[in-house]
TrEMBL record:
The lineage of its organism: Eukaryota, Viridiplantae, Streptophyta, Embryophyta, Tracheophyta. Residues 109-209 form the Fe2OG dioxygenase domain. It comes from Hibiscus sabdariffa. It comes from the Eukaryota. This is Fe2OG dioxygenase domain-containing protein. Keywords: Iron, Metal-binding, Oxidoreductase. InterPro entries: DIOX_N, IPNS-like_FE2OG_OXY, IPNS-like_sf, Oxoglu/Fe-dep_dioxygenase_dom, Plant_2OG-oxidoreductases. Belongs to the iron/ascorbate-dependent oxidoreductase family.
Length: 259
């Protein structure tokens, strides 16, 4: 997967154009969360694709991907789904949830994979690779491809760098899990920085509840002592609202808080 991602960003421009974003879409090469011509863009290139369930895949993108990349991505997506479900089962057990509450939402869950390329920046102090935000997923499984530092998480108001480890994943909790766990698990605010020396590549796999699902705090976690902290919303509606805004901290998740 690491080699294929590096090869994807090294494709000739005429091949990349076949994989370019179409108007009002987020899949393909391009930027997301662009809501005005005045906002500053992030210092980086991205390729995003819906990978599971298979019926949601963009046939135009799939047919234009290099064959070896397509085959590798297929295997990678399936293996990360299995890994995600194992982690979610353990999280449900730790929370004392009815395991069916988690499985009903995630068994046929939505998975998207985003490949990130952050080139060297001549003035890194004036740019950001990816704005501070929390992911909209249930889980994010991040592979740091070339072991170049850049990922940072906010901990007690301080930005802490996450050192890349060879052949290791970073597992991140997203907004959906904060909602489902009724605030017990908190989604993690993070950002990507850039440097002047070397490019940085990463692959983020986002695993979320099924798109036709309805999401809110798990029923098995709601008691008179622990009332719901969030309202209910359709998963597809949450995505629609999330992508309609500039990426900024937890601004969209906060709209669902009941108190």
């Amino acid at each position: 997967m690491k080699m294929e991602v590096q090869g994807l960003f090294n494709l000739p421009m005429e091949d990349k154009k076949k994989l370019w974003q179409k108007p009002n879409e987020v899949e393909g090469f391009g930027q997301a969360f662009v809501v005005s011509e005045e906002q500053k863009l992030n210092w980086g290139d991205r390729f995003y694709m819906m990978t599971l369930p298979t019926y949601l895949r963009n046939p135009h993108l799939s047919s234009n991907l290099p064959l070896t990349f397509r085959e590798t991505l297929e295997t990678y997506a399936v293996e990360l789904k299995h890994l995600s479900m194992k982690i979610l089962d353990h999280m449900a057990e730790a929370l004392g949830m009815d395991p069916n509450d988690m499985r009903v939402l995630f068994e046929e869950g939505y998975q998207g994979i985003r490949m990130n390329y952050y080139p060297p920046c001549p003035q890194p102090e004036l740019a950001i690779g990816l704005n501070s935000h929390s992911d909209t997923s249930g889980l994010t499984i991040l592979l740091q491809v070339n072991e170049m530092e850049g990922l940072q998480i906010r901990n007690s108001g301080v930005w802490v760098p996450i050192k890349p480890l060879p052949n290791a994943f970073v597992i991140n909790i997203g907004d959906f899990m904060e909602i489902i766990s009724n605030g017990i698990y908190r989604s993690v605010e993070h950002r990507a920085t850039v440097n002047s020396v070397k490019e940085r590549l990463s692959v983020a796999a986002f695993y979320s509840p099924k798109l036709d699902g309805d999401m809110g705090p798990a029923p098995s976690l709601i008691t008179p002592q622990t009332p719901p902290l969030f309202g209910r919303i359709g998963v597809a509606d949450y995505f629609k609202g999330f992508y309609s805004r500039e990426l900024r901290v937890k601004s969209y998740l906060d709209t669902l808080r009941l108190r």
